[in-house]
């Protein structure tokens, strides 16, 4: 790979990526076209001028994609599969019963966010966010504020931050040999952050569209769909744990989680048909995320700043626009981090912008009005404030105790 061309001290790769993200922010009704155009421009630049990490020309691009395809395939299968899961959950009629279980005022919004947090601690955060979004659609009569949507994403990412089975990044740390106990301390920051953003977001939602006080009448729960939802989630959880414990090498060559989810979806399709109508719109949102993830993976970020708590704090903001999977991989290679802080930063930090995490993209597919960086930041400001407060509370309580560099 040739050294990148630098303009005013900034590699052209980063300039093209920044322009892509700016285009996504400005033209939120054309996000897919902007992302694909940006990816094409970055690939063309690297084909012509610099080459790729594993070689130059088309062969270098092929080697790069051979290293990335499992990650991309897993994201594709999970995003598409969990969209069907959320429809199974909605059609099970369980969300229609939720108003009877939640408090009537803004505290009902807080309780729902707490449920998303808990679900995400042992499920994939995409599934937790979609289940939260599905319930919110019912209890708020279909009118969900963008600030509350940001809070749902933040709750799902916070819940997964301290669990090695709750987020892709923490699973990566587990695979690399980081102890689950070293990651679980992220819950100190995550719980504090949850307390900070959940209340203002829920009050904001209550003012926008109050929680429905009375459950729908004559609700008949569909036990078959409840079973299918449970089977999909259990399959994903079991595949994650078994593959990591028994066959970790398999995770590098096969999209295990995605295959497990789709195996259950297809095996149960004759019993209760999935809502295939959601696939076209979900497909667009999924391709958008994959385009950004692929573009991020092409950036020349072979070296991060020296590991420290200020660097880790900064990585949280970077992860809002730069995919946290390559960031985590680089940090693991570099070493010298306190892994609980890194898990919180790269896991929760992506909540600050709607495309900063796969959970945000998945929920924005359900609520297209959320695909606006300006509105997400303006109404979801408690999430950014909560991120900083949670980080510094954790620093004050635990101090910084880095692992030895690899």
UniProtKB/TrEMBL annotation:
GO MF term set? antiporter activity
Listed A to Z, the keywords are: Membrane, Transmembrane, Transmembrane helix
* Transmembrane regions listed in the UniProt entry: 5-26, 32-49, 69-89, 109-134, 146-166, 186-203, 224-243, 249-271, 283-301, 313-332, 339-361, 381-400
Q: Which GO terms describe its biological process?
A: sodium ion transport
Q: Which InterPro entries match?
A: NhaD-like
In terms of superkingdom, the source organism counts as Bacteria
The secretion signal range is none
PANTHER family linked to this entry: SODIUM/PROTON ANTIPORTER 1-RELATED, SODIUM_PROTON ANTIPORTER 1-RELATED
Protein name as annotated: Citrate transporter
Look up and give the organism this protein is from.
Bradyrhizobium jicamae
